[in-house]
Amino acid sequence: MSKRSTSQNVPKEMQARFDEISQLTDAFSQAYLNDEYEEACRQLTATLCRKRPSPLSQGKAATWACAIIHALGTVNFLFDSSQKPYVPASQIWSYFGLSSSTMQAKSKQIRDLLDMYQFAPAWTLPSMVDQNPLIWMLEVNGLIIDVRHAPRAIQEEALRKGLIPYIPEA
Q1: SS3 for 150?
Q2: Which of 10, 33, 142, 164 has fewest C-beta within 10 Å?
């Protein structure tokens, strides 16, 4: 399983920008999402701040905050009304006073830069891990298997190698 950094450390020259964008994502998360999204937004913002050159050094903070929320929402099915939390994409761009096309363009830039896609294991929220089949698919002897249904010894080896987040309950 690919890992993302949970660090919120950023280069000194990006600290003010990180704080500015995080204030905006925190406010939206507190109003419409949850603590899990708030934390993931901060981690994604920090990751983008550490990129060389950082895309966040240019443009408006509100545009980046909007795009960060949209990118994480895309990975975690935020726009699916059967999920909780659920927020329509239009609510995100209107909250930040942007157009849909601006939000989507910046979100795509982030997703392309960090290889983010629906069910991307590295950016799946902890509450969504059990529902994400990509986290549990492993190649064993040339075959793709769902490790949740594999013998315990295979599960233990996959956990030891960091390929799965935990050993699933039987």
Answers
A1: coil
A2: 142
Sign of CA dihedral 46, 47, 51, 57: negative
Residue 84 is which amino acid?
Answer: K
Can you tell me the distance from the alpha carbon of 156 to that of 159, in angstroms, rounded to the nearest whole number?
A: 5
Question: pTM of the entire structure?
Answer: 0.87
Taking only the tens place, the pLDDT of each residue in 67-95 is: 999 999 999 999 999 999 999 999 999 99
Distance (Å, rounded) from C-alpha 78 to C-alpha 125?
11
Closest CA to 164 of 151, 147, 145, 142: 147
Q: What is the dihedral of CA 78, 23, 40, 98, to 10 degrees?
A: 40
Q: How many residues does the chain have?
A: 170
- As a whole number of angstroms, the distance between CA 63 and CA 41 comes to 14
